[in-house]
Amino acid sequence: MPRLFYEVQSSVDPSIPGDWPVRKTINDTFFTEGAKSAITVISGVNPDNQIYYKIVVKTDGADDRIESLPMDYTLKEDTSKAPVPREVTIVDRKLVSRINKENGEVEYSTDVTISWAKPHNWDEIKTNTDPNNDIVFHFMLNTHQSEIETGNNPELIADGKSYGQFPLKYRRVLSVSSKAVRDVGNRLEYTIEGFNLFKYERFIGMSDGEPQFKKHDIQNEEGYPDFLLPNTVYYLQMFTTGAAGEKILKKPLKNWKSYQTNL
Fold first, then answer.
1. Dist. CA 129–CA 132, nearest whole Å
2. Whole-angstrom distance, CA of residue 115 vs CA of residue 263
3. Worst-scoring range by mean pLDDT, 45-54, 102-111, 164-173?
4. Exposure winner among 28, 56, 112, 167, fewest CB in 10 A?
5. Mean pLDDT for the chain?
6. What is the pLDDT of residue 260?
């Protein structure tokens, strides 16, 4: 069976035939086992512009090509979706360590505190008590600033130790309820615990005036390291969804809003 890859193409004119400029190319490694959809991020879009997107499926053969219908989207007009994380920055780093229970070696990581601008409707988000109307902040990490498709996945090495070979793509490593972030002046903060990746903290309701959470794991079938590796540069992308729930992440690409920074 030929190798498939998927181009996300965009244009301001949907009547142009053939290929449009390619915004992102992904392959089958972006689909987790059993998933019917994949996640990627399109950045650098002017929120005032109406953009048309389509997905074009190709193979290594020159004539193999299937394309979707165009989907129009204007970011600033989309008030139905969760607010875009803006002005994302790092405000604190703390070195942490633990003992590996299998070999007794000391492992090092870093707790990283992320700060971003408070959305305009934060008062509404903060006072909401219905879990179905909650806002969820998602954190994705990559060791390369852009997603790169290569024939052979590069080896992931930190402090001279190899952790395996993995594609250079953004992975969702944390999802947290709006009730779990800290309200600091005109900004929001959340601390990514270096030894606590691939976790989902879901808001399930209130009890005695306090938010209650249920925590579970985010799928990691490829066995990517579940902690921030020492002396490793990561790049962070944030996006938000409305209403907590795994099924949210199976919606079309145009539902995502994101912001990128380096970690």
1. 9
2. 11
3. 45-54
4. 28
5. 86
6. 47
